[in-house]
Q: What sequence folds into this?
């Protein structure tokens, strides 16, 4: 298939927030502060809390084939971004103990502004809004593991990702052109899919005002995200039109199926624009403003591999495949065809103030608005649907969130380093589905279904780092939170449903503790423990499920997840690197997981919906290492390996799940990155990413991994060569999935992709 885009073919960020937030905004002499995030050199890395990793812009440019900002996390320990192809807007992260269906168990920030979509806890509409940051803006990326800081909400059970962008101190002008080409082959699909991206930026500092303006546009095509399948009948039959082109397979539970074609072949045009201002009003006060825009226009199509005796493509109706009869309904292929239009806006205001008596204060207020978010899909069969016809329009416009954070730290007097803060957030979900007579461009008809609701949290927190002795620090902290859910509404035209959901509220306190011992000049030992509550999101609370001809609301009174996490770490630092060993545990009560259970207690009617699962537990170990100039000058090596045993311990509604692995959490995961700075112009990098297979279902009934909707293990190799042509020009050539590994993570994942980029910087 032709591909039009192809034709145009160190930093240390506020690490004390994890356990010593009282020093979170203190910059070293060789550092700079960006939105309250301290950026220092790699020499400071030995002093960091041990459950944190980071990477900076220089290493990203050398090592990572970064087309979008989520690529910058690619080789960090225990972080996997489920981006199905370039331009994918459904790209949540996994962490040590949480899979891709748990997007609300992590927090992602850019310059202190929340990108996590905490309106849900899934890998679709609740995925982080990565499109608000471009890779060219990034100064550094930091990951904090576990809920060990009172400064963060219980959504930090998995991890906190802090992205810091650059603040200029002189005039800058940048431009980049990038092209990527993926060769993909599976059953009846054999095609190349291309991506073309351009990015430009201007920045300067004029007196007290620093500003940055950036814009990037990406046009991409992705491999199929879905396959049309049908269960193979046990009995033979002569009924139906004989067709060829189907492939025999088995589904993830081991049942025989036929694969009929591909769907979700997305063609996307995306734009990101950003303005950021930092104004030094006085020597003690700086103010910041940021406005960001993300636009996305996606068109997805389906391909049928079926052909009748005359060679014509078959899309629906009664067919016969190898002597067995099938009836292909309209949705068999039309479900993989849709249009998505997104226009999202983000704004934020912030300040940094040096107050009296050595105190310092920071504040951030942000707004994220789904100004336009509309998906159109047909309900009539292809190929007629290509010209229009009946369909649906799903509108999430108006959804979004508001946040406010205020933090203060007192002077570190040796004996104490005190910090405190306040937080407020409000999340709003509005999802309306309308019928329409023309899914391509027709007006909205009758309202078919609706789901609305809001959640709100107010929090206060405090922590104190106490110097027990010169090499021994104790940090004690607590976070108080008051949460409520309100304005919940579920509606359906057919089956009929109209439910105003009950208001909910909860009040929780989460204590934190950390002990750090600098046992020797190059050794640091630490122990951490934290209690955290992750409150239900709007989408989890206000869910509706269909069972037969009945639509109902199964449980509008979900409890918050309660996590108790611990961690023990030992780090040995060297002049050019470090080694860290960590063991960790996590115990969850009332875990919010989707599973099959009775809609009402005692009912024989079963449905799949989000429930409170009694208890889960996970324990594991992690080894992380990094070395610079290892063996020979210019050769750097970094890597990680992690083992996790995560299981369901109590599950009254589904006893078959007890003792089974947590969905989408691999037992083994590893990364390895080798970089050779051959000279001051050329850098070569080779990298490997590994994960063993996981289960997608809570009862581990998906025993087959290499099939659509299965979850494979994988070992993927990447390579990159970057070359500085002169003072202003640089170029890079890279390959992701060098061995063309064919694997599924529910969806088929990209195979070999070649990337080339050219960059100008003034």
A:
């Amino acid at each position: 298939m032709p591909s039009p885009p192809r034709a145009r073919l160190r930093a240390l960020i506020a690490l004390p927030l994890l356990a010593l937030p009282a020093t979170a905004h203190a910059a070293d002499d060789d550092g700079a502060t960006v939105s309250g995030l301290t950026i220092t050199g790699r020499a400071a890395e030995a002093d960091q809390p041990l459950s944190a990793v980071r990477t900076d812009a220089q290493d990203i440019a050398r090592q990572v084939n970064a087309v979008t900002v989520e690529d910058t996390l690619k080789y960090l320990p225990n972080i996997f971004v489920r981006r199905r192809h370039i331009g994918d807007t459904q790209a949540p992260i996994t962490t040590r103990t949480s899979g891709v269906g748990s997007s609300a168990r992590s927090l992602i920030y850019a310059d202190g502004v929340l990108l996590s979509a905490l309106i849900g806890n899934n890998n679709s509409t609740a995925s982080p809004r990565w499109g608000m940051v471009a890779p060219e803006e990034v100064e550094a990326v930091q990951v904090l593991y576990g809920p060990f800081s009172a400064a963060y909400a219980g959504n930090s059970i998995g991890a906190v990702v802090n992205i810091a962008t650059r603040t200029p101190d002189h005039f800058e002008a940048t431009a980049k052109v990038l092209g990527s080409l993926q060769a993909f082959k599976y059953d009846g699909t054999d095609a190349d899919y291309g991506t073309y991206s351009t990015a430009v930026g201007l920045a300067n500092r004029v007196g007290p005002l620093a500003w940055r303006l950036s814009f990037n546009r990406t046009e991409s095509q992705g491999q199929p995200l879905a396959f049309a399948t049908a269960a193979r009948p046990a009995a033979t039959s002569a009924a139906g039109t004989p067709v060829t082109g189907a492939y025999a397979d088995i589904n993830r539970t081991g049942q025989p199926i036929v694969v009929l074609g591909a769907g979700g072949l997305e063609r996307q045009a995306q734009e990101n624009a950003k303005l950021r201002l930092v104004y030094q009003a006085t020597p003690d006060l700086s103010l910041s403003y940021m406005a960001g825009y993300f636009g996305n226009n996606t068109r997805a199509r389906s391909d049928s591999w079926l052909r009748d005796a005359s060679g014509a493509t078959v899309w629906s109706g009664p067919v016969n495949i190898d002597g067995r009869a099938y009836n292909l309904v309209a949705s068999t292929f039309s479900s993989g065809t849709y249009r998505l239009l997104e226009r999202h806006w983000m704004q934020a205001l912030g300040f940094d103030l040096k107050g009296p008596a050595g105190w310092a204060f920071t504040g951030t207020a942000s707004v994220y608005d789904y100004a336009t978010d509309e998906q159109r899909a047909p309900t009539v069969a292809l190929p007629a649907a290509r010209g229009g016809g009946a369909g649906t329009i799903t509108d999430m416009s108006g959804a979004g969130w508001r946040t406010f954070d205020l933090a203060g730290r007192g002077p570190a007097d040796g004996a104490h380093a005190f910090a405190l803060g306040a937080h407020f957030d409000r999340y709003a979900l509005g999802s309306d589905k309308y019928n329409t007579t023309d899914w391509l461009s027709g007006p909205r008809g009758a309202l078919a279904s609706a789901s609305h609701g809001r959640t709100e949290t107010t929090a206060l927190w405090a922590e104190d780092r106490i110097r027990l002795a010169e090499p021994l620090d104790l940090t004690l902290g607590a976070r108080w939170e008051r949460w409520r859910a309100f304005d919940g509404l579920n509606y359906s035209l057919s089956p009929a449903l109209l439910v105003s959901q009950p208001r909910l509220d909860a009040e929780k306190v989460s204590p934190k503790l950390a002990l750090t011992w600098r046992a020797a000049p190059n050794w640091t030992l630490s122990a951490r423990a934290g209690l955290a509550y992750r409150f239900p999101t709007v989408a989890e609370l206000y869910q509706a499920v269909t069972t037969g001809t009945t639509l109902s609301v199964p449980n509008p009174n979900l409890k918050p997840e309660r996590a108790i996490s611990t961690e023990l770490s030992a780090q040995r630092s060297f002049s050019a690197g470090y080694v860290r060993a960590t063991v960790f545990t996590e115990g969850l009560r009332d875990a919010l997981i989707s599973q099959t259970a009775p809609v009402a207690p005692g009912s024989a009617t079963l449905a799949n919906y989000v429930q409170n699962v009694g208890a889960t537990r996970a324990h594991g170990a992690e080894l992380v290492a990094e070395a610079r100039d290892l063996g020979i000058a210019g050769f750097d090596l970094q890597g990680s390996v992690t083992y996790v045993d995560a299981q369901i311990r109590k599950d009254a509604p589904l006893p078959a799940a007890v003792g089974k692995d947590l969905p989408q959490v691999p037992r083994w995961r590893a990364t390895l990155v080798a970089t050779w700075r051959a000279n001051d112009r050329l850098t070569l990098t080779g990298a490997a990413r590994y994960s063993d297979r996981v289960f997608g279902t809570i009862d581990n009934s998906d025993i087959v991994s290499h099939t659509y909707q299965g979850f494979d293990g994988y070992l993927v190799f990447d390579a990159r060569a970057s070359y500085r042509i002169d003072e202003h020009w640089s170029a890079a050539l890279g390959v992701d999935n060098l061995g063309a590994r064919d694997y599924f993570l529910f969806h088929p994942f990209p195979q070999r992709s070649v990337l080339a980029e050219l960059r100008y910087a003034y």
Notes: The first helix runs from residue 16 to 19. The chain has a mean pLDDT of 91. Helices lie at 16-19, 57-63, 331-334, 538-541. The longest strand covers residues 256-282.
